[in-house]
Amino acid sequence: MIETKNINFYYGSFQALKNISMKMDANTVTAFIGPSGCGKSTFLRLFNRMNDLIDDTKLEGECLIKGKDIYDKSINIDALRKDVGMVFQKPNPFPKSVFENVAYGLKVNGITDKKFIANRVEETLKAAALFDEVKDKLNKSAFELSGGQQQRLCIARALAIEPSIILMDEPASALDPISTSKIEELIHQLKKKYTIVIVTHNMQQAARVSDKTGFFMLGELIEYNDTKKMFLNPDNETTQNYITGRFG
Ligand SMILES: Nc1ncnc2c1ncn2[C@@H]1O[C@H](COP(=O)(O)OP(=O)(O)OP(=O)(O)O)[C@@H](O)[C@H]1O
Ligand SMILES: [Mg+2]
Question: Which residues pair with 33 in a beta bridge?
């Protein structure tokens, strides 16, 4: 689903990513772990070309999604971002109703059939494990929801336009343990249909939700392995030191 080949990425003269080659399969959850500043978010943002929005950056290497180089001139960036959704660290619902947050993406994509939209909003809220909690509040402001509910609403907003890939940058780090476990259960459900890449500082979370884990340090991919193997018996000594909490 996603493949990078020899990726180097620079902010000005600072090299944030060094020669990263990685493959991620469809319907898997991949976790990126590593100390602060090691390049996890930078790498994640390559997959929907969010780094394009930052001035004075340079990319070398290839980033393929479904076999296509997403940095090729022929790529339509709006279509790419429709196919590769993103959820951020802090829930960022639009200042609109719960319903409109989910309906928004459908409307901007030209869908006008009210019945279709209403059905889709309900289905998507169910898929995001939120419907039962908000079914009587669909017309209330999204800001009236709890932080954990707002984050599931943001996931629903991303799902509504049917992406293939969902990128999540520390999606639960601002949430309490119960909301966090709801997001983790949700990720587990969603991988049946989507390919998920998640950045997390929480090692237990990486171990619980992901199939594969990539460990980054100072812009390098130190180890990429099956999550079970990575946490029980990593190939690399630095990985071992990091996951056992000896640094970082
Ligand atoms: N917009 C930017 N301009 C210049 N340098 C940046 C920018 N964004 C990130 N960097 C630098 O690139 C490196 C990687 O940053 P990145 O945000 O990808 O790390 P991270 O692994 O996600 O860290 P954290 O765990 O703290 O979120 C850091 O040294 C950071 O200072
Ligand atoms: Mg980050």
Answer: 215
